[in-house]
Design goal:
By secondary structure, this protein is α/β, with parallel strands linked by helices. The protein has a domain of 201 residues: Aldolase class I (TIM Barrel, Alpha-Beta Barrel). The protein is 42% helix and 14% strand. It has 14 helices and ten strands. β7, α8 and β8 form a beta-alpha-beta unit. Bound molecules: flavin mononucleotide. Flavin mononucleotide (FMN) binds next to β3, β8 and α9.
Length: 325
């Protein structure tokens, strides 16, 4: 057993969280991770309305009696989603953990705390993690440059970012980005984290509610198969290379800093259902981390989590202890 501030804070067995993932974080995913002793997370904005989120939360309660969370991503969008409505669905649904991400969640912290909900804010820099601490977040998820999705614009990998977070933060934090096995779990704990947050690795599991083509693509990919898009829009995203991504990168090369989101809408807007649900792997850009290079199988969530914990324990007890002369 690995007991950390994060297992204590969230009332979970293992210090392993499944980060919110668009069109992956349905009730089936969250429940499978929570039933395996980690913390599963439903992706709030994948549900089109607060009513849909309320139904998804209720479905998840039927699949697990363990704690699970909801991710709320604050996007720079013109048509803002009904965040107060989503928060209400979370509170009324009896969810006890919210993973916030993207923009500063300050406006909603008070109502979440009043409902006794723990908030873990995902961020890609020490300054943003400190801000999260200042505004009252209970924990941070520190997302390194390796991560699938949006690594921010600083490009600091976890080997530096995590010990920097440990130098500065008082609240507990988990290591996010690039993690998929027990060696990395042990390393994250050594670097000051109280647990880990996994995205990409959890997509290649039996229970992940995505098309088999997505899982097969992750097994086939190496650590060289991701790339960055949208840097000039200051919305950098790490994605798996495919023909849609090549098309985006050609436009980025051609238009340089003059590129607008409208220029690449075909490749990025509304593509997740086509990829994740229909398995049309070249229909758009989809977030994927460098950890793809460490994904060689499609285990159950239980086997993945148990294997990671056993490997980390073995490393801490045996391999690391043996170095002390
Ligand atoms: C397919 C996919 C979709 C994602 N969607 C979201 C999202 O909607 N909101 C969010 O906060 N993070 C999202 N993420 C980021 C993950 O929650 C997590 O922080 C990240 O995947 C960690 O890096 P890793 O993939 O290397 O484990 C997504 C990641 C992936 C791979």
């Amino acid at each position: 057993m690995l007991k950390t501030k994060i297992t204590e804070m969230f009332g979970i067995q293992h210090p392993i969280i499944q980060g919110g993932m668009h069109y992956v974080g349905f009730a089936e995913m969250a429940a499978a991770v929570s039933n395996a002793g980690g913390l599963g997370i439903i992706t709030g904005l994948t549900q089109k309305t607060p009513e849909d989120l309320a139904k998804e939360i209720a479905r998840c309660h039927k699949m697990t009696d363990k704690p699970f969370g909801v991710n709320l991503t604050f996007l720079p969008m013109f048509n803002q989603p009904d965040y107060p409505g989503y928060i209400q669905a979370i509170i009324e649904g009896g969810v006890k953990v919210v993973e916030t991400a993207g923009r500063n969640p300050q406006a909603y912290i008070e109502s979440l705390k009043a409902a006794d909900i723990k908030v873990i804010h995902k961020c890609t820099s020490v300054r943003h993690a400190l801000k999260a601490q200042d505004i009252g977040c209970d924990a941070a998820s520190v997302d390194g440059f390796e991560c699938g999705g949006h690594p921010g614009e600083d490009d600091i990998p976890n080997m530096i970012l995590l010990p920097r977070a440990a130098e500065e933060l008082d609240i507990p934090f988990v290591a996010s980005g690039g993690i998929g096995n027990g060696k990395q779990l042990a390393a994250a704990l050594a670097l000051g984290a109280e647990g880990v947050n996994l995205g990409t690795r959890f997509i290649a599991t039996k229970e992940a509610p995505v098309h088999q083509n997505v899982k097969d693509a992750l097994v086939a990919a190496s650590e060289l198969d991701t790339t960055l898009i949208m840097r000039s829009l200051r919305n950098t995203e790490r994605v798996l290379k495919n023909s849609a991504v090549t098309s985006i990168q050609e436009k980025e090369k051609e238009l340089g800093d003059n590129i607008k989101i409208e220029d690449i809408l075909d490749e990025v807007a509304g593509v997740y259902p086509k990829i994740m649900t229909e398995g049309k792997m070249d229909d758009g850009a989809w977030s994927c981390g460098m950890v793809a290079g460490l994904i060689h199988d499609i285990p159950s969530c239980q086997d993945l989590v148990d294997g990671m914990v056993a490997e980390a324990e073995e490393i801490i007890n045996s391999r690391l202890a043996k170095f002390i002369a």
